[in-house]
Write a structure and sequence with these properties.
By secondary structure, the chain is mainly α. Helices cover 67% and strands 0% of the residues. The protein contains twelve helices and no strands. It has helices at 2-10, 12-37, 45-60, 68-97, 101-121, 161-178, 180-190, 192-197, 202-225, 240-251, 255-279, 283-305. α3 packs antiparallel against α4. The longest helix is centred in the N-terminal third of the chain and has 30 residues, at 68-97. The radius of gyration is 25 Å and the shape is globular. Residues 310-320 have a biased composition (Pro residues).
């Protein structure tokens, strides 16, 4: 228990690492919420993270002379554009061919992971120059101008990613709750046929919502690459796409819940890593604990939101008839 606590909040480094993980999960879950509002399920966060990481690395390792004010926005914009385009493949198949977005986004995860393997192993693409047999199959480090600034906490790897993710969460909440686009997405998600009869562009809204979900997941990939060690390597996404999917499902459309659950799982993931290192606990045990926590959160959400059965109304009073008059009262 001590190792778990130390890995979560025991040091400034642990807190910073947890915040970075939470920021990634928050972006993926926010994108899932946008697509889900339109009745779509984005299971492709992992592949979209891979696409965003590749694009961010390609830009961040080539813009060598530009200042940070130009390089960093270009890196993040490239990551978001790549993630949006990656999800746009599944969105186009959904609106034009009627193919289930669940299947296509899931299959694109494997393609995205394979592309990461390709670009980090192929010297003609993004692999760092091979100087010896011990050179790792990974990209060259991003230029200093392409790296995310730190928050300034002492001995902490926390970056501005957490503020960026919170800003995105607020913007998504406003979009879904306070804008015309949010109302239209909700109408499409509730009944696409009725929305089409009302004149709403159902296909366009679905295409844009799933592409926006991919853009946010791609942005998460850019944040992962822009954080130490600032390289693209195989397995860099660490399953954040699927964890963000779980966060989105648990949040049930509430961006406040997205932020809260992302922070909770972010600290739990960091604590679990320290638990494996310090106490020698197997990774499977940590996964079981995380799964149990998710089940408990889901059960609590179901219990608090399920409709209550109305209490039965009391029976009406029986009026006094002639037979209820006492015998000696006549």
């Amino acid at each position: 228990m001590t190792a778990l606590w130390d890995g979560m909040v025991g040091t400034n480094y642990a807190v910073g690492a947890s915040l970075n993980v939470a920021a990634t999960l928050m972006l993926v879950a926010a994108g899932f919420t946008v697509a889900h509002r339109a009745g779509l399920v984005n299971v492709g966060g992992e592949g979209q993270i891979c696409a965003g990481g590749i694009a961010a690395t390609a830009v961040g390792t080539t813009l060598t002379g530009a200042p940070a004010a130009v390089t960093l926005p270009a890196v993040l914009a490239a990551a978001a554009a790549a993630g949006g385009a990656w999800a746009g493949i599944a969105a186009w198949l959904r609106v034009r061919r009627g193919t289930s977005e669940i299947i296509t986004t899931l299959l694109l995860n494997f393609v995205g992971a394979a592309l990461v393997l390709l670009v980090v192993h192929e010297p003609a693409l993004l692999r760092q120059p091979v100087t010896s047999s011990e050179t790792l199959p990974q990209s060259a480090p991003l230029t200093p101008a392409a790296r995310l600034p730190l928050l300034g906490l002492e001995r902490s790897p926390a970056t501005v990613a957490v503020w960026l993710a919170l800003g995105v969460a607020v913007a998504v909440a406003i979009l879904l709750r306070r804008s015309v686009t949010g109302v239209r997405l909700d109408a499409v998600g509730r009944n696409a046929d009725a929305a089409a009869r009302l004149g709403l562009p159902v296909d366009r809204l679905r295409l844009l919502s799933l592409s926006a979900a991919g853009a946010l997941s791609g942005l998460a990939g850019g944040l992962l690459v822009g954080t130490a060690p600032f390289v693209l390597a195989e397995g860099f996404s660490s399953g954040f796409g699927f964890s963000g999917l779980v966060v989105g499902l648990l949040a049930r459309g509430s961006m406040t819940a997205v932020a809260a659950v992302s922070l909770l799982l972010g600290f739990l993931v960091s604590g679990g890593i320290n638990l494996q290192l310090a106490a020698g606990v197997p990774a499977s045990t940590v996964s079981v604990v995380e799964s149990l926590l998710i089940v408990l959160i889901a059960g609590a959400a179901f219990w608090t939101t399920r409709p209550r059965a109305p209490k039965p109304a009391p029976p009406p009073p029986v009026p006094a008839g002639p037979e209820s008059v006492p015998a000696g009262a006549a």
